[in-house]
Amino acid sequence: MSSPEIASLSWGQMKVKGCSTTYKDCKVWPGGSRTWDWRETGTNHSPGVQPADLEEVVKKGVKTVVIGRGMSEALQVPRATVDYLKKNGIDVLVLQTEKAVEEYNALAAQGVRVGGVFHSTC
């Protein structure tokens, strides 16, 4: 299964190719996507993305994870989260969300088993 293309991004809205849902924040992986509900792990802008936010994506067998920090990069990514991915042999890119979507789509188009978590507002 290939990683789905992120078809569109605007403030507070993301669309994934092949999915009818419009997401505010989303998780994507080879073969799927879903809403990224911060309440599941108690995530907030600070301290930010937790390893628990990424476990589902990691379990899909990705080689690379792209993290979109928001349009204004308000979402933090602690060193422990990056270390968690690296310890699992996964490359990680942490970028402003528009840049993150560009990188994610480029990797997906190359056939890389890429996953990601994306925050579409601040």
From TrEMBL:
<dbReference type="InterPro" id="IPR036748">
    <property type="entry name" value="MTH938-like_sf"/>
</dbReference>
<keyword id="KW-0963">Cytoplasm</keyword>
<dbReference type="GO" id="GO:0045600">
    <property type="term" value="P:positive regulation of fat cell differentiation"/>
</dbReference>
<dbReference type="Pfam" id="PF04430">
    <property type="entry name" value="DUF498"/>
</dbReference>
<dbReference type="InterPro" id="IPR034096">
    <property type="entry name" value="AAMDC"/>
</dbReference>
<protein>
    <recommendedName>
        <fullName>Mth938 domain-containing protein</fullName>
    </recommendedName>
</protein>
<comment type="similarity">
    <text>Belongs to the AAMDC family.</text>
</comment>
<dbReference type="GO" id="GO:0005737">
    <property type="term" value="C:cytoplasm"/>
</dbReference>
<dbReference type="InterPro" id="IPR007523">
    <property type="entry name" value="NDUFAF3/AAMDC"/>
</dbReference>
